[in-house]
Specification:
- This protein is mostly helical.
- It is built from five helices and two strands; from the N terminus they run H-H-H-E-E-H-H.
- It has a two-stranded antiparallel sheet with strand order 1-2.
- The two termini are about 30 Å apart.
Length: about 120
C-alpha cells in the first residue's frame, strides 16, 4: 500500500484504486485476503466508513467478496477483469484523446505509429 493520498479526488476512490493496483500487480492475489477497513483506516489515518466505502465499491463491482466472520477476499478472475477495465480506460483517456489532437494537427496514423516506435526506442 502506498502512503500518499491525492487531495483532489475522493479518498474512497483512491482506496479502491490502490486495492485494484495491488490486485493487478499481484500484491493481493486472487482468493487472497484484503486488509480490513480498520487496517486501511489506521494506515491512511482516515475514517473507517471512508475506507469501507472504497472496499464496498469493489464488492459492488464483483472484484471482492465477503467471507462471513473472516473478512474480504479477492474474487477469482478479478485481475483479468481489472486489466480489461484499465485497458478500456487507457483507450478512452489516452488513445482517443491523442487521435483527436492528431487530427487537429494533421498527423496521420502512420506518423503516429512512427512516433510510438521512436518512443519505444528511447533509452
Amino acid at each position: 500500500m502506498g502512503v500518499q493520498m491525492d487531495d483532489s479526488r475522493p479518498i474512497f476512490l483512491q482506496i479502491a484504486e490502490r486495492i485494484e493496483d495491488d490486485i493487478i500487480d499481484g500484491a493481493l492475489p486472487e482468493e487472497g485476503q484484503v486488509p480490513s477497513t480498520n487496517q486501511f483506516a489506521a494506515f491512511y489515518k482516515i475514517n473507517p466508513a471512508t475506507a469501507a466505502k472504497g472496499v464496498n465499491l469493489l464488492v459492488d463491482q464483483g472484484i471482492l467478496y465477503k467471507k462471513r466472520g473472516i473478512g474480504m477476499f479477492v474474487k477469482e478472475g478479478a485481475s483479468t477483469v481489472l486489466k480489461e477495465k484499465r485497458r478500456q480506460q487507457f483507450y478512452d483517456q489516452y488513445v482517443v484523446t491523442m487521435l483527436r489532437e492528431a487530427e487537429k494537427l494533421g498527423i496521420t496514423a502512420s506518423q503516429i505509429a512512427e512516433m510510438i516506435q521512436k518512443g519505444e526506442e528511447r533509452p
